[in-house]
Amino acid sequence: MTTNKLRIAFVGLGSMGLGMAKNLLAKGHAVIGVDMNPDAGAALRASGGQTAASPRAAAAQADALVLVVVNAAQVEQVLFGAEGAVGALPQGRVVMQCATVPPGFSTALGERLAAAGHPLLDAPLSGGRARADTGELTVMSSGTPQAYAQAEAILDAVAAKVYRLGDAPGIGSLVKTVNQLLAGVHIAAAAEAMALGTKAGADPRALYEVISNSAGNSWMFTNRVPHMLDGDFTPLSAVDIFVKDLGLVLDTGREVKQPLPLAAAAHQMFLMATAAGWGKMDDAAVVKIYEQMGAFSVAERAGKRA
Amino acid sequence: MTTNKLRIAFVGLGSMGLGMAKNLLAKGHAVIGVDMNPDAGAALRASGGQTAASPRAAAAQADALVLVVVNAAQVEQVLFGAEGAVGALPQGRVVMQCATVPPGFSTALGERLAAAGHPLLDAPLSGGRARADTGELTVMSSGTPQAYAQAEAILDAVAAKVYRLGDAPGIGSLVKTVNQLLAGVHIAAAAEAMALGTKAGADPRALYEVISNSAGNSWMFTNRVPHMLDGDFTPLSAVDIFVKDLGLVLDTGREVKQPLPLAAAAHQMFLMATAAGWGKMDDAAVVKIYEQMGAFSVAERAGKRA
């Protein structure tokens, strides 16, 4: 715990970033936000934050820079692009990077930022928008003691649980990558299981009740199958997130020469779903590929769709 | 609940059957056991049970016949083989069949037994040896009210939870089959995830700690990864069980024309493990295939193997 009030440059006010920024404001920190979406900036200002036109402008005089963007390309742009923060952020100040990125990218980023005079906290998040809003995220992190010391007040404000996985940037991203391997495989497997059971004549709701109390259960099965039963694919996390994250998983496997046949099969299912035009839907919409292949509907059998 | 004391013919005194039979004895029922392994019969007699030389001999004058054998071929043999129980079991008495078998086999078996004058309770089990020993199994069952009424005292003695999934034999086996799809995929995915993380440089025990508290968790991940970390493949459930059960899953998908790419990939991993000579090891030994492919050892990195 710390009573330091920081001036925080915060890039990426999306579904998770905005909630995090609000929790930082609530703890008395100053937040200077940057997002391409003007509504996100307006929402931050309405909560007492400030906004800036570019990462460079936000980073000037900041005590810390937090990135909650989508992927490695955006991280690159925010830090080293034309209006990038590096160069403007005062020497010695921490960069806390929260996007899910390739572990190797994080390792290299740590070296590049060290050369520019900044410690990197490799800090991918888990918990989704709901936990971001309540300040109860899980952080899978790695970095030097110096990076942690500078980020401590930020972690206090946004996270319920911080896993400290080592001194080297990259391990935090690796553990998040492994988590996404399992999350993606489990969502696709949940869809596959519900498809087989329903097609072969089981009542989908009874199937859900039994499996979610049996050895076949997973966190994702319990959480996502209700979306399938209701045919409600309002995006909480989208199909395209898993197209990206399982892609990252497979890239990592390729890099270290580790074959990943289940992740590869699951990635193909999410690719099929985005190819079918369902990329922006909730990731549970991967079940629609199984339904299409099998010519039936889980939700219809569950009594939800006409 | 019932105070009826039954005379129960019980075929299959293996890792689950013996515990179940002992719980039946403890409730005051008479149990006449049959198993090819003389040690199993001796263990039953030591607990106050009787044994018979054949299913036919055990079934004569029995109130119910319970089968806890390995697969459909054994069920066929026990019921309809040369020394089979059908014909000897008194008319009208229930057959409770607990093996994991193809759902279509169970459906057909229900019709064949009905023609022979016996109701069938389709009653696959979940919970493993530990729950069998404590009388706390989960039963995924279907059958007529008549079948349930006759099996009630048996279910009371062996199960903590009985899912009643319908009147028709086959649905119980189908739900168990779907559970096995997920269980098998989740074990292989757990191995794949531990392999990727370890190969890429994460500490395997830290990885286990983080994932088992995150959205990537599954019942199987929590339960089986400790075997991988310890390199201890003492069989609780064997690789060959999943070679069989995922085979059943794929047969069922073929029968109803539902493609199952994740189950197919997982099945290949278990086939590789049995091809490598590890079929009798604990199912968590599927990780050894990933280790072999990746030329490393999870347990060694976890500090367990030299």
UniProtKB/TrEMBL annotation, chains A, B:
Gene3D superfamilies: N-(1-d-carboxylethyl)-l-norvaline Dehydrogenase, domain 2, NAD(P)-binding Rossmann-like Domain. The active site is at K176. Its EC number is 1.1.1.411. Residues 7-166 form the 6-phosphogluconate dehydrogenase NADP-binding domain. Residues 170-290 form the 3-hydroxyisobutyrate dehydrogenase-like NAD-binding domain. Belongs to the HIBADH-related family. L-threonate dehydrogenase subfamily. This is L-threonate dehydrogenase. It comes from Vineibacter terrae.
